[in-house]
Design a protein that fits this description.
single chain, 471 residues, alpha+beta, Aminopeptidase, Alpha-Beta Plaits, eight-stranded mixed β-sheet, four-stranded antiparallel β-sheet, 35% helix, binds zinc ion
Length: 471
């Protein structure tokens, strides 16, 4: 780790007091990053103890916590509830130089997914700091990221570095349920906030430890959710007198057809680049295939094996549908007139959703089974040809000795709301996770190492100093 915070002041030992004060005016006071880092661990512990499990969210509790911190730091902030208890908050450090460049939002979400205490070895809301880890639901997704952003943001404010653009710290509600009371609501109801914004740094990418190496994954696009509800209809009756064809038999047949369908493999350019980027860190079995995946010579056997071994990687190569919800008769002896099933389909970012629905209809091939849309987003990809991406590359090399790999995420985040507005959005966390640590996200025993939080705050500050402060 490069030592941070070495400033040219020491080289100016004999400068006059005037020169020294001028220097500190231009270069800013060096914030004490050590204490920001330590304080970050304490603050994460407190943040994790606040119950913002979604549903119902109660993000306004998190807003109260952040309000206090902004107030203590003397920073102006605004907050708004999209619905009772669904708080969102943001603070802005305005640009100090002209011409002002496109603004940057540091985004995280306050809500967390539920945790089943029975499967955890500690209280998910404990926020306990023990054995080098901070424990609790949201430690990684995304209160840990939020604290790294917050502490770096506060350090930037204190540094007095010139700022070439507005920088925002934004914490929103409801990401885990689609963001419609959070980022989506703000984009819809407070569009003026985003008028001068050119960049969003959000969750969705991070450093990953591969043996001796670290690669920093920066998410530039994601598969597009298309959530569907199938409805099948048929003649109702009594369970004691089976019918030839019912809503249930139709649905079972439709779902069998869907579950046995593998959509065509299509390796998009960003996916090929990602696989090439991570190829050096793969096992012997995968290295060559990953490096040349763009050439499209994947056998069915290899794809099946990859699906069993690494379902997440496999899902980046084609459109997919998971059957997730089933709703049949309300009574065991009643053949229902109508049954439902829900599908979580994820489309490649260049897939036309309407075309996909037509294809799905052909697969189901039954006029008594209809498809309704629950939710769908428009896809977009953020370019890597930006000064922000370059700053991430530079900081990752300096701080981790790591390569940056642009990645496509199989899941989705709030970034699509901003990509839809033409705002460059990257999924980026300043952490380096081992596979074991990362497994806690939406899983059991979520925790983050103290080292990741402390180092992450320093890394994030370096990134802001470089991109915003021209360091
Ligand atoms: Zn998240």
């Amino acid at each position: 780790m490069k030592s941070v915070g070495k400033r040219p002041e020491s080289g100016f030992k004999f400068a006059t007091a005037l020169a020294a004060s001028l220097l500190s005016f231009f270069a800013g006071a060096q914030p004490d990053l050590e204490s920001y880092s330590r304080q970050g661990v304490e603050r994460l512990s407190s943040y994790l103890q606040i119950d913002t499990v979604n549903p119902p969210g109660n993000e306004s509790r998190g807003v109260e916590f952040l309000k206090t911190i902004f107030s203590e730091a003397g920073l102006a902030f605004e907050h708004v509830e999209s619905a009772p208890g669904r708080g969102n908050i943001w603070a802005k450090l305005p640009a100090t130089t002209t011409p002002k460049q496109a603004g940057l939002i540091l985004l995280h979400h306050i809500d967390v997914v539920p945790a089943n205490r029975d499967y955890w070895s500690f209280d998910p809301l404990s926020g306990e700091v023990k054995d080098g880890f901070v424990y609790g639901r949201g430690a990684i997704d995304t209160k840990g990221l939020g604290i790294a952003q917050l502490q770096a943001f506060l350090a930037l404010a204190e540094s007095g570095l010139p700022r070439n653009r507005d920088v925002w710290l934004m914490a929103t509600a409801d990401e885990e349920a689609g963001g419609f009371f959070g980022a989506g609501w703000l984009v819809e109801n407070r569009p003026e906030l985003f008028a001068d914004v050119g960049y969003v740094l959000n969750e969705g990418g991070s450093g990953r430890v591969f043996g001796e190496d670290i690669a920093v994954m920066v998410e530039v696009t994601q598969k597009v959710p298309l959530w569907l509800k199938l409805t099948s209809t048929g003649r109702p009756g009594h369970g004691s007198a089976p019918l030839v064809e019912t809503s249930v038999t139709r649905m079972v047949r439709a779902l069998k057809r869907i579950s046995e369908t593998e959509f065509p493999v299509r390796v998009m350019q960003p996916v090929a680049e990602m696989f090439e980027g991570i190829a050096p860190y793969q096992s012997d079995a995968d290295r060559q295939t990953f490096a040349t995946i763009g050439q499209g010579n994947l056998s069915d056997e290899y794809l099946l094996e990859l699906k069993m071994r690494s379902p997440g990687y496999h899902a980046l190569l084609r459109n997919t549908c998971s059957i997730t919800r089933l709703e049949g008769s309300a009574k065991i002896n009643v053949i229902p007139a109508e049954v439902h099933a829900e599908l979580d389909c994820r489309l490649l970012p260049d897939q036309d959703p309407e075309e996909f629905l037509q294809a799905l209809n052909v697969i189901i091939n039954d006029p008594h089974v209809s498809i309704g849309k629950i939710m769908g987003f428009t896809p977009a990809v953020s370019t890597t040809q930006t000064p922000l991406f370059k700053a991430i590359v530079d900081v990752s090399a300096d701080e981790f000795g790591a390569q940056v790999v642009p990645t496509v995420a199989g899941g989705f985040t709030d970034s699509h709301f901003f990509r839809d507005l033409g705002i460059t959005s990257y999924g980026y966390s300043p952490f380096a996770f081992t596979t074991a640590e990362f497994a806690g996200v939406h899983g059991n025993d979520e925790r983050v190492s103290v080292i990741n939080i402390e180092r992450g705050i320093r890394v994030y500050y370096q990134l802001l100093a470089k991109f915003v402060g021209g360091q």
